[in-house]
């Protein structure tokens, strides 16, 4: 295979109680990317549509992640990348992770899979490091593994795949304001109370158990974040109203997607996910906030080949 | 049924990464208790063997927990309780929880189960409150539900049963010093760093996932506690040596049982659990610390009827 076209999923990191450790991949929201082998060594980004992003390899997350892979590879050639960027940067649904993960996943396919998924996550994390100063894995891990993933530990990197109940849908609304991940990290406190910690790991344990048990009620009861959400939600227009209305419309839970400003809700079944989308849409239309909205099944595959 | 004899299991709370939320029940360590109906209202503790504990209903955890049940019951009679106390108070393996849980479970059986397991936990927590000032559930929940349990939340009380891999064994060594739960809580800090929190909920998520997946390696990789263990272990003789030797002997993980001073290790299979017991025994014999040692399968039933 000399060329591959891939779908690079958007992802929701944190998922309320899983700050910095949990993430999930979306199915109907993502970039497309074409990667082809070249005889010349190194990565060249030849075309970006959809967004105005740098073509320079060392300034583009796909270039940085791809370079990390190339450096560990025996392959003597290089790659050309074309990106059709459909996820808006700064939206909080893993825009940079989609490009980083998509690039390294596609290259690995073209090289006949010399690297494990875990290694691909490590390469993609280099793209994340360039994008937000922190080599976090909570978006790139679900983008590569699919479904829900837990970053159990960073040193050593330990990624755990968590099964996804089949009726789980995500609704994501993106108010058209930009918050940089690095800025939204700065406002967080560096300490928390023991009591907050206990609540959080109780909920995270409950969420993981709920996903394994297909227990939608337990998933809903566990989707709380008493630590980060109260702080970050201040930056997001009408967060409380969006969340309250989502829950009233039947969502299992709702919270900030990644570092925001997107707000996600998880629901049982597409019908409820659409109700939730309607309620979110109403809220922003009433107060005149521009937005994009997405409804998606959870994507169990992660990055995938398309035609 | 007018009379029932029950086994009341010892329990390991916290289990390293699950401070205040996780617990497990043991199979071969526990009290025995005989409970019989009486026409007279109220609880009477008629006999305690094995330990010197108060017979007065309001000063005995079984009496307090049983009274909490009676107050919610339509039953007009009362109960007599005989306790054969085999778990030493203050050992850190749920001595008070075994009495509280055993009493209310036995009474519920004699009344033809008017109460759910969750309600029994709530009654038993009243016994815990008397014993340690805090109505914690991380010992009484596994004592009643069996296996591993997660206390997802206290308000409202939400207990989640977690499946137990069949080859999992616990080794527990109890150095003969007493630490009161209330004292060992006092030395804890009331704040933790965000980074410690993230590590902890990553590990707790990993442990829950490992238990569901029967992934013993993942269980082992997750059994870390960077928050409470470094502080509480100072109170326990040769903690680091016991733990290090347990891991060298093949244990998946090792930590403080509840608030100590008992130290537990989890192993895959009885053979390794016995090696671990040998290494723990050697360590305390060398330095002249008196101890009890237990090797047990995980008990998936919790309190149970015996003859």
Describe this structure in words.
Two copies of one chain form a homodimer. The first copy, chain A, is an alpha+beta fold. Chain A has two domains: 3-162 and 300-306, Ribosomal Protein S5, domain 2, CATH 3.30.230; 168-297, Alpha-Beta Plaits. Helices cover 37% and strands 28% of the residues of chain A. Chain A has helices at 61-71, 95-110, 117-132, 140-145, 181-186, 194-213, 216-222, 229-232, 239-248, 270-287; strands at 3-13, 22-38, 42-49, 78-84, 148-154, 157-162, 168-175, 191-193, 253-256, 263-268, 291-297, 304-306. In chain A, strands 1, 2, 3, 4, 5, 6 and 12 form a seven-stranded mixed beta sheet that branches. The first copy, chain A, has a four-stranded antiparallel beta sheet with strand order 9-10-7-11, with helices on both faces. In chain A, helix 1 crosses helix 3 (117-132) and helix 6 (194-213) runs antiparallel to helix 7 (216-222). The longest helix of chain A has 20 residues, at 194-213. The model of chain A has no long low-confidence stretch (mean pLDDT 96).
Count up the helices of chain A. 10
Query: Which structural class is indicated by helix and strand composition of chain A?
Result: alpha+beta
Runs of chain A with pLDDT <50, length 5+?
A: none
Q: Indicate the CATH topology of the largest domain in chain A.
A: Ribosomal Protein S5, domain 2
Pathway (chains A, B): Amino-acid biosynthesis; L-threonine biosynthesis; L-threonine from L-aspartate: step 4/5
Family (chains A, B): Belongs to the GHMP kinase family. Homoserine kinase subfamily.
GO molecular function (chains A, B): ATP binding; homoserine kinase activity
Subcellular location (chains A, B): Cytoplasm
């Amino acid at each position: 295979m000399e060329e591959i076209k891939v779908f690079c999923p958007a992802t929701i990191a944190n998922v309320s109680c899983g700050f910095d450790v949990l993430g999930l991949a979306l199915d109907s929201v993502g970039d497309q990317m074409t990667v082809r082998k070249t005889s010349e060594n190194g990565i060249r980004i030849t075309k970006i549509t959809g967004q105005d992003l740098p073509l320079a390899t060392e300034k583009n997350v796909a270039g940085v992640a791809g370079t990390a892979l190339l450096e560990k590879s025996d392959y003597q050639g290089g790659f050309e990348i074309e990106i059709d960027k459909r996820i808006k940067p700064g939206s909080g649904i893993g825009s940079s992770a989609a490009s980083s993960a998509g690039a390294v996943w596609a290259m690995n396919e073209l090289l006949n899979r010399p690297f494990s998924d875990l290694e691909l996550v490590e390469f993609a994390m280099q793209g994340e490091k360039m994008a937000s100063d922190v080599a976090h894995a909570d978006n790139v891990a679900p983008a590569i593994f699919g479904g829900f993933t837990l970053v159990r530990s960073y040193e050593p990197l330990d990624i755990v795949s968590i099964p996804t109940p089949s009726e789980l849908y995500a609704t994501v609304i993106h108010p058209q304001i930009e918050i940089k991940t690095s800025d939204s990290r700065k406002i967080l406190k560096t300490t928390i109370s023991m009591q907050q910690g206990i609540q959080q790991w109780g909920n995270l344990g409950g969420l993981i158990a709920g996903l394994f048990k297909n227990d939608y009620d337990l998933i809903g009861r566990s989707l709380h974040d008493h630590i980060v959400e109260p702080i970050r939600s201040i930056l997001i227009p009408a967060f409380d109203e969006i969340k309250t209305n989502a829950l009233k419309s039947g969502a299992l839970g709702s919270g900030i997607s990644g570092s925001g400003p997107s707000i996600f809700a998880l629901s049982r079944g597409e019908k409820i996910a659409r109700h939730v989308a309607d309620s979110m849409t109403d809220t922003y239309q009433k107060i005149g906030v521009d937005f994009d909205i997405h409804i998606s099944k959870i994507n169990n595959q992660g990055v995938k080949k398309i035609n």
